[in-house]
């Protein structure tokens, strides 16, 4: 930890203490999850349901009870002169309620929002004293960028070696065939030519995209290759992993760009937004990983562990300064994709999937818990008759066709499945239409288990 | 897949597009009807003492009147008149307190109806509230058969916005006075006293704009609400700062530049207080 960030940490801690003293706490909530895990939808549901709960609706019963019914008011903190885009839950909600409904687009940039929760004080004088205000700071961002966090401590040579080793195995090798051919044809002393660098970058980026989109793989770095963000594809990105034997100008150029890329990500994304969290939720599309096969499942676990090591695994000084989250909740999202009785299995499976991540969080003194939730419940329980037998299933309306369908999601194992399980063909869960929603979101949105998660995560702070 | 069948999608029979699912969520989460406020034990004790004092005093007075009648008819009549007048005043005071207090509760009822989206209840509350407004205040008129949103917008622009302007004017006036007091007062303790008194008066003045005439209990309840809203107003309102700056650039400020800091704080408080009081008395929340 350099002196400057230490000083900043001390100042932040002093501010936290002062805020607690006057009953104006700030809670920075890290909502982490790989791309398509459901972060944007989770934040939308969180905001809508919290605001409705502030108006007295029982949208989050477990949270209201955990707070002893003392939540008096919830509102979005009005914008000031922030330079960062604002997360827009109303727009997302309106799109979900529209006919035909639309899910949020792929998140391309940062956005932030603060929610103020006014709670009556716990003391017997609570009715007379002014209320406490807990401000929840939320951020939304492209999930792909998260995987740049573990890169910060890794040099170019080390990263190249690990990435290429992975790229030559299993389904990745298939997706990256063109890139690997290009690498093999590259002379070790290739000169620093931009045409070469760009070509290698393009092939590597396409390989990453194929890994993500057709193979459901997750441990794909660097993040901006997959999701360049609002600034597009700058020359900064024209690099790619090179084998150790490469010694020429191109290798030096790639190493320089790699370092510059990390520097840029650190100053624009990681340092301002990803330092200092008080609470953390890790969202995981467990069922999606399960349906994408063994390699994708294990890749998801590796990616989660790599990220957790950075966010929740703060060092001793940071922990002393209160810069590491004290509670880390892991949640299997889209729990409405499985029938009620399979949801516990989903949470149990997540516990195994996130074993590495959990270890890192607990090593730094955080409490952990596992949940299954649906930020927006889109299905109801149903029964599917398959091969003459009845199986619990779910019924929903398919997003594109607008037709009803009963989906049997397969068996959800409680622990990492036996090898035989993986012999099955891959399955792609369809997207559903959200249920009928009030576009103004006056009563929140139907969800499953959001309140249990929030009660555990935030209940003690209210 | 280890015995269990493969995952699959079974499309509904027929080609007709299906309705979106409806979980009846709005109804399921609707705010439970506010449960009647329960009495705390301190409240029970205080209530009991009040009943004892008043009841025994009544009995005592009755006995006394009867005894006086036994002595002489005229003596009895005079005593009765005195007792009636005295108790009459006491009960009148109590009734006024109760009305002032309950008037404030109607704000909560109206807001709850608004939050629930209960148009009928809201219309009823709004009508009762309009009837209570001080004479001379513009009213929104009949709100029947108007959609709730439209009724609220009408009340906001016709009634609540002018009231807010008047409240702000009262606040500016009080701010000038508070500022002047800091300039001439000999001791900070006196300042605090004057501010306290002026602040309470201001809150009651603003409440009167909204048609509330709170008594002692009502004023206490009102002050509590204001304390809550003050935080919101302070946090959200940059306009207050601009207003204070505008006020203080007047000539008064130039003369007492040395006192400007303390005066600015006091003036700012008054303006904030007027806003917070207005916020606390509104029958429908300000649209954020
Ligand atoms: N059925 C269902 N689908 C969900 C839910 N949350 C997310 N999804 C689906 O997952 C997709 C990705 O969600 P999103 O929030 O954009 O993921 P992000 O990349 O982590 O922000 C959405 O387009 C939905 O189709 C949920 O609670 N229930
Ligand atoms: Mg997103």
UniProtKB/TrEMBL annotation, chain A:
Pfam families: DUF463 (PF04317). This is YcjX family protein. It comes from Neoroseomonas alkaliterrae.
Automatic annotation (TrEMBL), chain B:
It is a multi-pass membrane protein. It holds the Pfam family DUF697. Its main location: membrane. Signal peptide: none annotated. It comes from the Bacteria. Keywords: Cell inner membrane, Cell membrane, Membrane, Transmembrane, Transmembrane helix. It is found in: Cell inner membrane. One of its GO terms (cellular component) is plasma membrane. The chain crosses the membrane at residues 44-66, 72-94. Belongs to the UPF0283 family. This is Putative membrane protein.
